[in-house]
Amino acid sequence: MAGSRPAVRPIPISRRVLLSAFLTLLSLFSLASFLFSADHSSSPPADHRPQRRSFLSLPSDPLRSRVELLRRHASGHHALASAYASRSLRLKLDHSRLLRQFTDLQLSLSSLLPRLDPDSVPDEDALRPLEKEAKDRIKIARQLVSESKESFDTQLKIHKLQDTVLSARDQLLRAHRLRSLSGSIAAASTPKSLHCLSLRLLSHPLAPKTLAPIPNLSDFFDPDAFHLAIFSNNVIAVAVVVSSAAKNAVDPRRLVIHVVTDRMYLPAMRVWFKLRPPPGGARIEIRSIADFPVGHQDLDLSTLRFYLPAIYPELRRIVLLEDDVVVQKDVGELWRVDLEGRVNGAVEMCFGGFQRFDRYLNFSHPVVAERFSPRACAWGFGVNVFDLDAWRREGCTDRFQEYQSLNEDATLWKPEAVLPAGLMTFYMTTTPLDKSWHVMGLGYNPSVSLEEIHNAAIIHFNGNMKPWLDVAMNQYKQLWTKYVDTEMEFLPLCNFGL
């Protein structure tokens, strides 16, 4: 069909046209939404809930507020003045002016406070003088507190330091008491090493033979010899006394040492000196309490010394030594000291107001108050020279027994102490010796001078720190240990810390 009209095709809608139409509609929709929201936000809110009004939005009374503020300030400074006044009274300040000023200020503020009642101030004219008066007094209070603060702080520091010192002193006293108690327990108990030594000596083959009576007992009562007496159960302590006395004697062959011990320790004591006899030819006699039927049957070593004339009737003079002494010079010189016809020769311990009779005896007891002077000077037991003839003449043993009977209820002196009994028994019959004969305190006093020790004839470890104990003072211990016979076979076996 060459001559026919061509067919008409539908024209397709372009994708670009559709996209343009869609964007146009979207723009119109966004504009409409914006206009609607703007109109809605410009309208008044539909929420008609009642709104709360704050306290500050309420109408206030300026006059009342000022009065209340003044009253609070005045009340606070009144309390401050009261506190400083009471503190100055408690601290006892030297300047009483401050106390008076704080008291006056406290009273003036007390009188001002009732007038600062908001209900009693009607207007500004009534408030003005009150305000001026209150501010002036508050200013004075601040100045006074500022000026006195340093004084109060200093006084408070002083009081705190005093309290600290008192607390430290109490702690020190408690420590001293505990130390004294511990030392007393240590001194009163027998160390394991001494128990060990006694048991080993008792197990020695010589022990059974030592119980036999001493032959030729008269050899020990030579009138030309120097006689020493020791009352002790401590084997090694007695050995040190014997060794030191013999080694420092000019003529040890003239030395006779009388040892008295409990029956239980007699074999051990005799075995020791059988194995290790005194050096230099010194003689030693060892007997037990049971060998002396004198006085009461319950006598112990501490009271047996008051029966020396009955124990040794053959002797006219004797030197009594404790078992905790060390002899450093010839004891023969002590033997020859002139006692001026008196019974006892001893070194006095008193100096100033210390170591007087009133320390050892109960002067509230009528017998003590009647017979003795509280200011009489005490002397030391441990190194004593006794004239046994004068002792018998004065009847000192009978006197001792009388005082023992009076002290059955322990009202004259403490029954465990022996020195008070000696002070009473030998009162007015004691000749003071030169202090170099007997230097005491090596068992408790760390301040004994080396010069005193060097010049002393006999040093005494009286106190709880005995040289054979672990609590001994190291600066003095070597003075004792150098006389210990370290070659004795039993000492290393018993752990003696020498």
From TrEMBL:
Pathway: Glycan metabolism; pectin biosynthesis. GO terms for molecular function: polygalacturonate 4-alpha-galacturonosyltransferase activity. It is a single-pass type II membrane protein. Its EC number is 2.4.1.-. Pfam families: Glyco_transf_8. GO terms for cellular component: Golgi membrane. GO terms for biological process: cell wall organization. It is found in: Golgi apparatus membrane. It is an enzyme of class 2 (transferase). Its main location: Golgi. Keywords: Cell wall biogenesis/degradation, Glycosyltransferase, Golgi apparatus, Transferase. Belongs to the glycosyltransferase 8 family. PANTHER family: GALACTURONOSYLTRANSFERASE 4-RELATED, GALACTURONOSYLTRANSFERASE 9-RELATED. This is Hexosyltransferase. It comes from Dioscorea zingiberensis.
